[in-house]
Specification:
Layout: H1 2-18, E1 31-32, E2 73-76, E3 78-87, E4 90-96, E5 99-105, E6 113-119, E7 123-125, H2 132-141, E8 154-164, E9 172-180, E10 183-195, E11 199-209, E12 219-220, E13 223-224, E14 228-238
């Protein structure tokens, strides 16, 4: 009888643990296409592509500072790029400490081109509550099991289209090419995007399946890693 009670207790504990919340279920799921050739452009914030007209002017005679929503201008971006991953026992959030990006403004917000490049080796988990275990997880994430930073040091995104309207309360839907671990796939996701005379903002949270980018590590048999990962992007640029 004592053995039976212990067994039931173990089953209950395992069952409660397995019910840990899956954050990927709460974020919109990105539409993901088939693998394509990598985008060759560079991030506007790093090396503008395509170049804005202001970049072609002679340095000795710099043009007037662009004004108004129709001016074409490359704006460097700041903010955070991160993620939330989870196992059956809980979830972990992380950010990338090193990245660059920019947005090339067009005649309208929908004509803008957004892109960024992330150094995956700069991954930093649990930024608000670091521990010795956090440092070990950082090292594991850049290992071949996950980002494989030695072989694929960069992850990039290049927008192809920004259209009005999006899932939920999103103002727009952004479509473009997302590259991780050497795999490039087109993605579309809802985002809140705004443009004023002084700044441009873009914020999005959406779910992707990590396995579609070759990140297939399963975790331990009693603590499996979920396939869904929430990408969290919060960017801002001053015009």
């Amino acid at each position: 009888m004592k053995y039976l009670n212990l067994t039931l207790t173990t089953v209950l504990i395992v069952g409660m643990t397995a019910c840990a919340k899956d954050p990927s279920k709460d974020a919109p799921k990105a539409e993901v296409g088939e693998v394509v050739a990598p985008t060759q452009d560079k991030a506007p914030g790093q090396a503008p592509a395509p170049s804005a007209a202001v970049d072609e002017a002679p340095k000795a005679a710099a043009p007037p500072k662009p004004k108004g929503p129709t001016a074409r201008k490359v704006v460097d971006l700041t903010g955070t790029i991160g993620f939330v991953g989870s196992k059956v026992t809980g979830s972990q959030d992380g950010i990338f400490q090193k990245w660059s990006g920019g947005v090339l403004l067009g005649d309208t917000l929908e004509a803008a081109k957004l892109s960024f490049e992330v150094e995956v080796g700069s991954v930093h988990v649990n930024p608000g509550s670091r521990s010795e275990w956090s440092q070990k997880l950082d090292k594991h994430l850049i290992h071949e099991d996950f980002f494989f930073a030695d072989k694929f040091p960069k992850a990039t995104f290049f927008s192809k289209k920004i259209v009005k309207g999006g899932e939920g309360e999103a103002s727009h839907t952004i479509s473009g090419d997302l590259t991780m671990r050497g795999v490039t796939r087109p993605v579309s996701f809802p985002a809140t995007v705004s443009l004023t005379d002084t700044e441009v903002k873009a914020k999005a949270e959406f779910t992707i399946n990590r396995k579609e980018w070759g990140i297939v590590y399963a975790g331990k048999p009693d603590d499996l890693i979920r396939d869904g990962v929430v990408l969290k992007i919060d960017l801002m640029g001053v015009r």
